Amino acid sequence: MKNESCLRNGARIIFFGTLLAVSLMLVPTSDAKKQPSNDPFEAFTSEKFDREQTMVLNLKKGVGSSGYYLLHSLNQTRQMMEDIDKAIKQAEAVDRTFAKSRGKPDSRFLERAQLKMIRARETAQQLETHLQEAFYDLKKDIEDTIAFDEGRRKN
Q: 138: burial class by Cβ within 10 Å (0-12, 13-18, 19+)?
């Protein structure tokens, strides 16, 4: 009983020691060079923004921003299209099997439902396109707005 307790304590010590060592390896040192950013607003970040400019910049990224909701909706739309594709394939397979079992292999009993699913898939594709365009337009409008405002402030 006592040996089991010692083994557990030893295992915990080893585990937490390893965890501490890995954590310390991940802590950046002061000598670490900053990685270059792909952010198009990198040039703007050296300047101070007023409250309104910061609000405009925050529309693009961050949880709860317009850009976040557009990208989240885009991911949900892609998942929806995958699910609709699965539903279409499943209905086709069941329809073929059912028709074959009834001795009418050329009949399509679920055709109307399949057509509705195909139409839903096409609508989801259009939604995906609109969401992508909305996100890219939002990013472009933010860049243009900040650039215009900065140019106006300097003059």
A: middle
Radius of gyration in angstroms for the set of CA atoms belonging to the chain, rounded to a whole number:
28
Cα 90 from Cα 30, distance rounded (Å): 57
Angle at 53 between CA 52 and CA 55, to 5 degrees: 65
| Residue percentage of the chain with pLDDT more than 70 | 69
Residue 45 CB partners (closer than 8 Å, separation 6+): 39
What's the rounded Cα separation, in Å, for the pair 141 and 145?
6
- What's the farthest any 2 CA atoms get from each other in the chain? 82
Three-class SS of 66-86:
HHHHHHHHHHHHHHHHHHHHH
Question: What confidence tens digit (pLDDT) does each residue in 68-92 have?
Answer: 999 999 999 999 999 999 999 999 9
DSSP 3-state assignment of 141?
helix
Question: Tokens for 132?
Answer: 């992508």
As a whole number of angstroms, the distance between CA 76 and CA 3 comes to 53
HSE-CB of 83 using CA atoms within 13 angstroms: 8
